[in-house]
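Trying the structure run again after the queue cleared.
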Amino acid sequence: MTKHVNTAMIMAAGKGTRMMPLTADRPKPLVEVAGVALLDHVLEHLRDAGIGKIVVNVHYLAEQVERHLDAHASDFAVSISDERALLRDTGGGLVQALQLISDDPFVCVNADNWWTNDGENAISRLMTHWDAKHMDVLMLLVPLATAYNSQGIGDFHMDDNCLLSRRVGDAPAPYVWTGIQLLSKKLIVDPPSDVFSTNVFWDRAIAEGRCLGLVHEGLWFDVGFPAAIAATEQRLGLHGVG
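Done. Tokens:
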């Protein structure tokens, strides 16, 4: 069933440690791929999906992110979730930002991935596949074999009903999470502390059979470390993108 979602949270509050030295003078969301800032790439996809409101959390060099977002004020209603005083990790960041998020479900996107759409916008596809009766999380996934620049061995298994389960031990899992998801607000409850990972919420949803996956149609790249930038630009060029 199609559920139009108008609000997205962009996770932009990391320290950028893995991206040094590129983040010595700028936050990771403003690092560029093919001349486009990571944040602008995310905003382009959100705009194309009809998103009108964005909530962005900030920490490292937060003022740069805020100034950059000023240029997008005509496209989005922008709210800042300020984590300057305490970096809360992804789960804690969601808890703090929840009061700023009006939609349920809402889009949540990490600002350190790069993707292309083969056909329909990936975020619009998530909306199309959302079913509140059966899910609290809908993750966009890519096969491990085509998770470009990924340094892991996969994150999830997915059954015939699209239900997700965790990779176990050192055995590879066939799917990698892209950093793009739809979340129900009712999942963002009972935080274990001020600082914690979204994994806490995911594990609850998995245990209840309410964490599902959707396989991405298009290219996807992990761009969370410096060498990934050139590798991504090269492969985009080979595919005639960018």
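The radius of gyration is 17 Å. Worth checking whether this holds up in the mutant runs.
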